[in-house]
Design a protein that fits this description.
single chain; Farnesyl Diphosphate Synthase; 15 helices; globular
Length: 295
């Protein structure tokens, strides 16, 4: 098996090329909108969601073209969410992926439209005719992504997040928020990858259990990094949650317990993969990658 770090670089480069291809060229009218879309998507991020698509897809011998499309779709949804989250009406952040946020580089109206267009493009990419020989499975994947992005997923989690500013939440309430805000798209990424190949119920069950735990672990680590790292390391404004009086795993549990929780979720994710044995090595490696990541 290819070295994990080499594999990560290959998938990151592959995803960047696929995104570059599917995004409208910057010279196409409306040029400013297309420039903003490309600015928001290309040349930044670890592509964790794309890596999950490919790692899960490898378990089911996923079709490479379908895996690229699924990886692009989740990365486009993720990028749209970051553009909108940074707007003054939401988190009001000036920095994203180490450069000015989209509305700072362009303007608020263009950033809003860029986010809208990126969301639409995600479904355009995933719905292209003939992507999978089984049209019903492709339709199921579209349904899965729509749920992950909507009011019962990412958008709903952001709404709960905004409503929680200045309020004390229990750990259970915080988990419910992040199951929606962060976890839903991470879970969808892994499941989309698994659905790109042969049907295997055992794999889908294992990947689902894994992704539910790793999605929460991702957020716990994010909260720890927000409190411990500077803006240049994070690529976004450090300490933003504390400044806005948002509840986080660190504020609720303390730093030591938050770190312990991240390790517990990591272990739970690996336990979910145990029935798959050595076949799940890439997903196991990705679990460690999530815990050790730096932006």
């Amino acid at each position: 098996m290819t070295d994990f770090n080499d594999w990560v670089r290959v998938i990151q480069a592959r995803t960047e090329a696929a995104l570059t291809h599917c995004l409208p060229e910057a010279h196409i009218v409306p040029t400013r909108l297309h420039q903003a879309m490309r600015y928001a998507v290309l040349g930044g991020g670890k592509r964790v969601r794309a890596l999950l698509v490919h790692a899960a897809g490898d378990l089911c011998a996923g079709d490479p073209v379908a895996l690229d499309a699924a990886a692009c779709a989740v990365e486009l949804i993720h990028a749209y969410s970051l553009v909108h989250d940074d707007l003054p009406c939401m988190d009001d952040d000036d920095l994203r992926r180490g450069k000015p946020s989209c509305h700072r580089q362009f303007d608020e109206a263009t950033a809003l439209l860029a986010g809208d267009a990126l969301q639409s493009l995600a479904f355009e990419v995933l719905s292209q005719p003939g992507l999978l020989p089984d049209a019903d499975r492709q339709l199921s994947m579209l349904h899965m992504l729509a749920q992950a992005a909507g009011s019962r997923g990412m958008a709903g989690g952001q709404a709960i997040d905004l409503e929680s500013i200045g309020h004390e939440l229990t750990q259970t309430e915080l988990e419910q928020m992040h199951i929606h805000k962060t976890g839903a798209l991470i879970r969808a990424a892994a499941l989309l990858g698994a659905h790109c190949g042969r049907e295997d119920a055992e794999v889908v069950r294992a990947v689902d259990g894994y992704a539910r735990n790793i999605g929460l672990a991702f957020q716990v680590v994010d909260d720890i990094l927000d409190g411990e790292s500077d803006s240049s390391t994070l690529g976004k404004t450090a300490g933003k949650d504390a400044a806005q009086n948002k509840p986080t795993y660190v504020t609720i549990l303390g730093l030591a317990r938050a770190r312990q929780l991240a390790l517990e979720l990591h272990d739970n994710a690996l336990a979910a993969l145990r029935p798959l044995g050595a076949r799940a090595q890439r997903l196991e490696q990705l679990a460690a990658f999530v815990l050790q990541r730096r932006f």
